[in-house]
């Protein structure tokens, strides 16, 4: 696995992965909008 050269790059990547997991678990969905298609 590759390492990150800059902390902000690692932070942004991890935030994106966490957001994707939340969306897939439907934790961010609204009443009439599906979490993912």
Unreliably modeled segments? none
- Shape, per Cα inertia axes: elongated
Major β-sheet profile: none
Count of folded domains: 1
Short characterization:
It is built from 1 helix and no strands.
Describe the protein.
The protein is 49% helix and 0% strand. With 37 residues, it is mainly α. The chain has one domain. The chain is elongated, with a radius of gyration of 13 Å. The model has no long low-confidence stretch (mean pLDDT 75).
Task: Reconstruct the topology from this structure.
Elements: H1 7-24
Any descriptors?
37 residues; mainly alpha; 1 helix
